[in-house]
Amino acid sequence: MTISLSSYPPQQIAALEAAYNAAISRKRLRFAAGLVVFIVLLIVAGFGAEVAPKTFVEKIGNFVGYFDRILNLDTGKRVWTDPAEWFWGWQKWLKLLAETLLLSYVGTTIGALGAFGLNFFAAANLSPHPALRFVVRRSLEFCRTVPSIVFALIFVIAFGLGPMAGVLAIAIHSVGALGKLYSEQAENIDMKPLEGVRSTGASWMSAVRFAVLPQVMPGFASYTLLRFEINVREASVMGFVGAGGIGQELVVAVRKFFYSDVSAILLMIIVTVFVIDICTGWLRGRLFGSEQRI
């Protein structure tokens, strides 16, 4: 079977090529113009923020030099040549690291429960009343806008030094962050099951229970595990304001210029975060299946 392809006259082909080239040129011109505007705005923003490239170039050696110092023992040797001297306080640091993990776990759990209870009122497709949605959304914004370390400082003043201030700070910030993520997850559900449940005369609570929760729970669990990983890093900084955990020992080492201690504590925190990331990834795979994560 022979198939004949229609051919266009050379003049028409030339006209089509010219139109195509003109369209491509316009796209490239718009891209170039947008890139120029972006660069100009970036430069203006840099001047407004008093970013000094000259200072960065001149002082970058101090940054590199600090990392060189924290990898040296007091004897002048590299830290990996004498691990026993490097991790001389590992028992105390592990105890404080465990306190940090518990602080993060409790704060994340309280925050997740609070976000779970509020997110349905913040979702545009589920909230019973616009005024209630407005109030809940603004409350969640307040919780996540104020830095957690500021909350920790306030609670340290109120309740004194210790992990309690860190737990409360992480919990409040987690409510705001997870509440936002949960509500967006709820807004993207398939509305047909919800409409079907409502058509039976079911209450708002029953509609959420039977039509919404089965769709959003995998996403809620995934966001919660991610938030726990983030909160471990947050809790490591809480010690800078006396809210307990390994961060309290880290800030002491920084202030007293115990360079090798700084690197040892940082390494322990980094390894802990690596392990948590691997474990939460495995747990997500067990909960939802590897196929749904690809």
TrEMBL record:
List, alphabetically, the Pfam families matched: BPD_transp_1 (PF00528)
Segments passing through the bilayer: 31-49, 102-124, 145-172, 264-283
Topology term for the membrane? Multi-pass membrane protein
Keywords carried by this UniProt record:
Cell membrane, Membrane, Transmembrane, Transmembrane helix, Transport
InterPro entries reported in the protein's UniProt record: MetI-like, MetI-like_sf, PhnE/PtxC
Which residue intervals define the domain ABC transmembrane type-1 in the entry? 97-280
Pull one GO CC term from this UniProt entry: plasma membrane
Question: Where is the major localization of this protein?
Answer: membrane
Give the Gene Ontology MF terms in alphabetical order. Answer: ABC-type phosphonate transporter activity
* Location in the cell: Cell membrane
Coiled-coil annotated residue ranges, if any:
none
Is-annotated flag, keyword Hydrolase? Answer: no
Asked if Transport is a keyword of the record, the answer is yes
**Record-stated family:** Belongs to the binding-protein-dependent transport system permease family.
Stated name of the protein: Phosphonate ABC transporter, permease protein PhnE
